[in-house]
Amino acid sequence: MENICQFIIENIDKNSLNTKKIKLVFNMQEQEITTISKIFKVSSEHIIAFYDTSTSFNYFSKTTGICFTGKEVIFKRKEDEVLMKINYEDFKEANKSLPEKTTTLQDIKFPISFHNLGTSYLSFDDFKKKNYIEENDELIINFLHILTSKNNIESFKNESMFPQALEKTNESIKENYIKVIIKIILDQYGFLDEKRSIKIFALMNKINVASETRYKIQDFLHNKHSSFEDLLNIIKQESRFMQFKYILISLIKDLIDIDFEDNKIYNFLYENKDIFKIKDLKEIYWIKEIIKKEYQIILDDNKEIQQIFNFISETATKNNISLNGLYLSGMTIGMSVSIMELLGFGELIKLPLIDSSKKYHNKNKQQLRLFIIQEILKENQKTITQIIDIINNLIEQCNTNTQNLQELIKLLKL
């Protein structure tokens, strides 16, 4: 059975004449989502996609259009008109039987039953008259037909579209996330060098991997039979559909950061673009540029920190790269999502992923820079502690194995 959210996300832009008017939730900023939620009277976390028909040049002015959730579609063609909400289940049977030579949407009748009101047969022209669609929106209506006539949709229900930071996910997702990265690096190079190992330890610290999970990851280094595809499938099974999409983007960013100076990972990602849902090699290029900008935060003054986040937001939006996915594991300079929230970066980047309630203070640039560096140093100290913990665990295992071996020798002598 197919997930309704997955079907909408993977098919809606294929069924629109003007794909620039379609915006999927993972490419939206917090203010956009909030505006749509308010005007279309729908919970922010349930918005999957928005078909924008507003004439305003204001980026966040989503006053008219069609809003898609997992349960219903909401029409609003005029700013002063009443919202029209239609449950997908109310489309009952959207069979379109067209004459062989007149295959236009004008000939399609959509049977829509409203609560206790029987069935109303709305044609394409009816939709036009009621301002629910425009002349160039035929394929949106066609998409509704395709959507409601699907027999393998699991169920029409709302699902939270909001991402969850990796540090807040379960240990299985964290474990296999790190294992995917290790497996790919080992497949490309045959070994983990010191530099890449340190970055992986830092990443484990950022996403708050538990000690027991780190020991499992340590064992994986000596018993790495699983393919990265198998490991990804485990993550997929453990995640909601939208969460998995964010995780794929996060993996791309972390892989590029860990192997920043080499081209092997770029080639690997492009060769496996279907698995990682990469549409264009430019996406990889722009993610690398965003990583470069993140490292500048340590060096630049406060005003430029705001400009850096503006650049990151604009770059991601223009290239259809999910900002939420980019920050699922925090920042490449060693900041977790929790630290980003503490510094007030949520106010700068405006994402559902990051709490924006704490204010960003930019009056004293030296004090802020010192605070940033202090937090990064704290994270590095935690990483060192984790490395020492793993070394101690290895020593303990060696001692246990030695004792077991000695016991075995004694038994053999008997």
Task: Describe the structure using short key phrases.
globular, five-stranded antiparallel β-sheet, alpha+beta, 414 residues, two-stranded antiparallel sheet, 7 strands, 2 domains
Main beta sheet: strand number and arrangement?
5 strands, antiparallel
Structural class: alpha+beta
Shape: globular
Please state how the strands of the largest beta sheet are arranged side by side: 1-2-3-4-5
Count the E strands.
7
Mean pLDDT: 77
Low-confidence runs:
93-103, 111-121
Radius of gyration: 26 Å
Helicity, in percent?
40-55%
**Terminal Cα separation, in Å?**
62 Å
Q: Count the helices. How many?
A: 16
Topology:
Elements lengths: L3 H8 L10 E3 L5 H11 L8 E4 L12 E4 L3 E5 L7 E4 L21 E5 L5 E5 H6 L8 H11 L22 H19 L4 H13 L4 H10 L7 H11 L2 H18 L5 H8 L9 H16 L5 H17 L4 H4 L10 H6 L2 H5 L15 H49 L1
Antiparallel strand pairs: 1-2, 2-3, 3-4, 4-5, 6-7
Helix pairs in contact: 5-7, 5-8, 5-9, 6-16, 7-16, 9-11, 11-12
Architecture overview:
The protein is an alpha+beta fold. It has 2 domains: 145 residues, no CATH class; 203 residues, no CATH class. 51% of the residues lie in helices and 7% in strands. It contains 16 helices and 7 strands. The strands form 2 sheets. Strands 1-2-3-4-5 form a 5-stranded antiparallel beta sheet, with no helix packed on it. It has a two-stranded antiparallel sheet with strand order 6-7. A hairpin with a 5-residue loop joins strand 6 and strand 7. About 5% of the residues have low confidence.
Short description:
With about 425 residues, the protein is an alpha+beta fold. Helix content is about 50%, strand content about 5%. The protein has 16 helices and seven strands.
